[in-house]
Amino acid sequence: MSKFFILLCTLLLSHAFTYAQMRTLSGRVVDTYDRPVANASINIKGTTQGTVADASGKFTLQVTDTTVLLVSSSGYATQEITVGNQTNLSITLSETAAELQQVVMVGTRRVGRVKTETLAPVDVISVAAPAPTSRVDLTSILTYTAPSLNYNKQNGSDGADHVDLASLRGLGPDQTLVLINGKRRHQTSFVAVFGTRGRGNSGTDLNTIPIDAIDRVEILRDGASAQYGSDAIAGVINIILKNSVNKLTANVGVSAYDDPDFNPAFKDGLGHYIYSDKLDGKNLSAGVNYGLPLGKQGGFLNLSGDYLTSGKTFRQALDTVDPVHNKDGMFLNPYRRANGDGSLDMAGGAFNLEAPLNTAVRIYSFGTYNYRNSDAYAFTRNWSARPERFPTDAAGNLIEVPGIIFTAADGEQYFNPHIQTKIYDAAIAAGVRGTTSKGWNWDVSNNIGKNRFHFYGDKTFNASLGAGQTHFDDGGFSFLQNTANLNLSRELPGVAAGMNLAFGAEYRYERYTIFAGEPASYTNYNPDKATGAQGFPGYQPSDEVEATRNNVAGYVDVELDVTPKWVVSGAVRLENYSDFGFTDNYKFATRFKATPKLNLRGSFSTGFRAPSLQQINFSSTFTTVQGGTIAEVKIAPNYSSITKAAGIEDLREERSVNGSLGFAYNPIPGLSITLDGYWVRIKDRVVLSGQFDATDPNIDPALAAEMARLHVGLAQFFANAVNTTNKGIDLVADYTHRWSVSRLHLLFASNIQDMKIDEVNVPPKLSGSTSLQETFLSDRERAFILASAPKTKFAFNAEYGWKQWALGTRLSYFGKVEILGYGEDGLGINPQVPTDLDPNVHVPDAYDYGGKLVTDLYASFTYKHFTLHAGADNLFNIHPDLGVAPGAKGWAYNNEPAGPFDAVQMGGNGRRLFVRLALAF
C-alpha cells in the first residue's frame, strides 16, 4: 500500500508545476451598507483553492481569466463571480437567513454546493461566536439545535458519567461518522456498558474538540458508508475549524443550577452539609481564539484554547422512610445516596494551519489536544444491607473511617465510593493538496489520533484488604487510529451539463489496549469479603489486551448534472479488513429543481459498520445495582472461552439499507423549509446482551464455574443480537428578516421517529431454553435500544434584535420515552410483556417518561467589542418524570443509575442560570 501512495504522489507532484497563466487579483468584500465582511471565504469553484478576507474585507488571490469565484460568509447569500480580465474586485454580499446559502463540504466531493441544493439533508450550525446559553460543550449545543441528534448526560453509570456520546436518528453513537475538516476523527477508547444511552457502543467524543476552535458544524443526515466508510450508517458530522486571521475572540462565562425541588440543603448524620447552598453544578468556562496570516496568498495559522471547571450536582433519591421532607407524596431521603453529575476540570487547545508552497500547491495541518479530570459518585454502600462490602476488624466490627463512612440520623452506616477518571485525547493531521494544469484536484494526507481513559477509585475500600487504603489505580484503556488517504477529483464541464469525478484510496490502522490497575484494586484478600475496590473494581491482568487491525479501502464518486435542473450522483466503496474480511457498499442520490424555489431530493444506499476493537476485546468486572441489590457483572471479550460457553458467536459487521426522500423550499427571501423522510434497516446490530445469572440452572456449567471463580453473579457479552428498522421525518424551517436597525430570526427543527425490532438473532446454543433466550436480549435491553431517542422532538428558537440589544427564547420538546426496570420491587407489571412466559423469567416493571417542554430565555447586549449574554436554561425547572411503575406508591431505586432520574430526555438537574461575556477585536 505504501508503494502505491508513493507512486501516485510522485506522478501528481511531477505535474503540479505546469500551470495556466496565473495573475494576482485584489478585492474587497463588503455588505449592502458598505461595511467590510471580515473572514469572508473566497473559493475558486471546482478546486480546493481559496483565501479568506482580512478584518477590512480585503483579499488577494492567484487567478486566471476563466476563474470563477464563490464568495460566502455566514449570514449572507453566496456570490458566484467570473473574474475575466479584472484585476480588482469590489464584491457586495446581501444579508440573508443565516447559513441558508452556506457552502457545504460534507455529502458531496464537488466544491461549491450550497446547503439548499444538496442531494441529501445537511444541517449547518454556526458555533463561531459564543452562543447565549449555559451549554458550553459541543454535544449539548447540537442536541438543542439539530432535529434528530440526541444526547443525555448520564449519572451513576460508571464510565458513562465521564464521556458524552451523541446519537443521530435514534441509532447508536458509533453509527455516526465524525470528520474534522473532512478527515476521519478517531473514536474514544471508552465503550458504554452501563446507562440509558449508547449501551454497547463506543463513538466519538465531540467534547474533546475545543468549542472556540470551531467555525461551524455540518451534519449530513443520510447514510454515507459508500462515500466515507465504516460508521456512517446514520450520517456524518463534519466539524470545520476556524481559519480567520488578525482577529482575537475570547469569552468567559459562569453558570449554576438552581433546582429547589430536588436540591435541598440536607445534612448528613454527622451534621455536615451535603450541599453548601441551593446552587450546585457551578461552572466556569473560558476560551480564546486568534489567527495569524502566513504569506501573501491566503495562508493562516489559527490557534484556540479553552478551559472548563464544573462542580458536582446533587439530586436526592426518593424513599418512603423520611416523612419530614414530603413533596407531592414522595419522600426525600438524604442518606440513601448523593446522585447527580460528576465534577469536571478540562483544558484543551487546537490549531489549524494552511500555507501555500506556490499558487497551486498548499500544505495544511490541524490538531487538537484535550485533558479531562472528573469525579463522580458510584452506588452507596449500606452496612446493614451489605456488611461484606465494609472494612472490619478481626472481631468483625465495622471500622469507622472519618470523612468516608458516615452515620445517618437513624443509625445506619454508609459510604459513597467515588469513580475518578483522567482522560487524554490528542490528534494531528497533515497533508498537501493542489491543482494540476489539467484541472485535477489532489489531496494526500495522514491523520493520527489517540484517546486514553484511566480510572481511579477514591474514598472507597477493598473490604477484603481492610481500611488502610482508600484510593486505587483501577487501570483503563486506550485507542489509537491512523488514517492515510489520497483523494482526486476533477470537474468535467463538457459532460452533459457538468460532471464531477472523484476517486481515492485509504489505509487505516487501529490499536486498542486495556491495561490493568494495581493489585489492590481487583484482588480478593479475604473470601468472606467483596472483591476489589468498591464502586469500580480495577481491570485485572486477565483483562489486558493489545489488539490491532488494518483496512484498505478504495472509492469512486460521480456527480452528474444531467440537465441544469436535474443532478444524479453515485458512489461505490470497497473495503477489506484484516480481521473479518471484505465489504462493498453503494449509494445513489438525485436532486431535481422543480421550480427556482423548490428542490426535490432522494437517496438510496447500503451501509456497514465494522464491530469496533473495543466491542471485540472489551473485558471488565463492574458493579450494578438491581432493585437495591448490589452485584458484580463480568463482561468477557468476544473470543474468550467464557463467551463461547455462553453460546455467543464471533462478531461480524453490521449491514444497513438506507432510503430518504424530501425537499428544500425557499418560498420567500430569508425563509428556507426542508422536509426529509428516512428509512434505515440494520441487520446484525452489535449490542450488549442481557446479564446471564449464575443461579440459572439452564446456563452452561462451564460458564457457571468460571463466574464462581471470578466471584461474579452475572455475565454479559457483546453480540450481533438484533435487526432493527428505523423510520422518521425531519422538518426544519429557518427564517431571517432584517429591516432598518431591527432583525428577527426564527428557527424550527423537529424529528418524529419510530424504531422497531424486526428480529432477535438468538444463537443456536441458547435457542432451546426460554429463560436463556430472554436473557440473551431481555425485554429490558430491547427497551433501551428502542429508547435511544424520544419518539418526538422539536426545537423552536426565536430571537429579536434591535440595535445592540437582543432577546431570545428556545422552546425544546422531548417526547415520551419508555424503559423497563429490573422487576424486583413488585411495583407493577408491564402490560406490554406477555404473561405466559416461563415462570423463571422475571417480568420487569414499566417506566413511562412523558413528554416535556423546556424553555430557555436570554438577553444580549453588544457595546463596541464586547457582548454580554445572560439568561436561564430550563427556566421553569422541568425534570423528566420520576419513572414510577404502574401501581407504584413511591420511587423504587429500580432504574439504571439508581437515582431519581433516568437519562432519558433533558437531564435531571433543572434550571440553570448563566452569564457570559464575549470579546472580539
Main sheet characteristics: 22 strands, antiparallel, barrel
Total count of helical runs of at least 4 residues: 8
What is the CATH C level class of the largest domain, in words? Mainly Beta
| Rg (C-alpha, Å) | 28 Å
The beta-strand count equals: 48
Into which percent range does the helicity of residues fall?
under 10%
Shape: globular
Q: How much beta, percentage-wise?
A: over 45%
Distance between the termini: 48 Å
User: CATH architecture of the largest domain, please?
Assistant: Beta Barrel
**If you average the pLDDT, what whole number results?**
84
Number of domains: 2
Structural class: mainly beta
Organism: Flavisolibacter tropicus
Subcellular location: Cell outer membrane
InterPro entries: Beta-barrel_TonB, Beta-barrel_TonB_sf, CarboxyPept-like_regulatory, Plug_dom, Plug_dom_sf, TonB-dep_rcpt-like
Family: Belongs to the TonB-dependent receptor family.
Written overview of the protein:
- Residues 369-875 form the TonB-dependent receptor-like beta-barrel domain.
- The chain has 921 residues and is mostly beta strands.
- It folds into two domains: 1-95, Carboxypeptidase-like, regulatory domain (Immunoglobulin-like, Sandwich), CATH 2.60.40.1120; 96-832 and 844-920, TonB-dependent receptor, beta-barrel domain (Maltoporin, Chain A, Beta Barrel).
- Helix content is 6%, strand content 47%.
- It has a 22-stranded antiparallel barrel. Strands 8-13-14-11-12 form a five-stranded mixed β-sheet, with no helix packed on it.
- It is globular.
- The two termini are 48 Å apart.
- Mean pLDDT is 84; it is low at 1-20, 265-276, 317-335, 824-844 and 885-892.
